[in-house]
Amino acid sequence: MDSVVIWEWVGYLASVVVAISLMMSDIRKLRWWNLVGAVLFVAYGVAINAIPVALVNFFIVLINVYYIVKLYRAEKVNPAS
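C-alpha cells predicted for YgjV family protein:
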C-alpha cells in the first residue's frame, strides 16, 4: 500500500476519533478520545507536510493533557465526588 494512502487513512481515522470524542458525556472519556484524535492529526499533518494542521493539533494535545492531569489530580484530592 502506498504511504500516501496510509496517511490519508490516518487522517480519516483521526476525524472519526475526534467525532467519537464529541459524543462522550463523561469529560474524562472525551479528553482521552480527543487526545488520541489530536495525536493522530499531528502525525497526519507532519506526514503530509501540513504544518498548520500539525501545530493546532499539537496545541490541542497540550490542552487535553493539561485537563486530564487536572481531572486526575482533583480526583485524588476529592475521591468522594
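The chain has one domain: 3-77.
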